Structure prediction request, 243 residues.
Amino acid sequence: MNTGRIALITGASKGIGRAVAERLARDNFDIWLNYRSDTAGAEETCRNIEATGRKCILLQFDVADAAACKTALAPLLENHTPEVLVNNAGFARDGIMAMMRESDWKDVLAVHLDGFFNMTNCVLPAMLRQRRGRIITMTSTSGQTGVGGQTNYSAAKSGLIGATRSLAVEVAKRNVLVNAVAPGFIETDMVRDVPRGKVLPVIPMQRFGSPEEVAGVVSFLCSPDASYITGQTIAVNGGMFTG
Prediction:
């Protein structure tokens, strides 16, 4: 079985996912790049990865669809085991709870929580057999502290923190390390409409972060320097929340 350095990143056609994929390519990982609908963005990311000399396989499917995950990954997993899985796919559909549609609740939880289960459930058995692996899940400051208008998103991200802690305990003996990264306000499409005049005063560093700064933390968690770190949630938020 080929056990080369492969990183599988979900939701990697843009934003934080793209930055993570490109950073891990520079760290000498070949990339399995998942995306749902942004084909142009995924292809651009793929070209950037291949420009570093690494290989990139594009995988278009919805992580919330268990059958689609298995169909896409099963043929690859027959001969290859990713060393890294980054569960990054996600989106927000904000609104106050009293007026939230059931679909807004279920869709957000499905992508984050079902997506985490579907992807991890596919890849984890192979990691356990290899007795090595890194699973990194993108959560959020919203999952660490309450944010009005994001009950669904906060619930999903909080759930990912809990899942990270429990899974880390389950698989540590097999040298599979499981951690989460919790970005705050990062310069992506998700913060395009955020009123900066109201937000910047509550960020001690007085600026939004960059996707590359988040990717740097993921890179560290994938490195030998992080070989005794598991079950942790590392915040990247400019000091906005320190709990």
The mean pLDDT is 95.
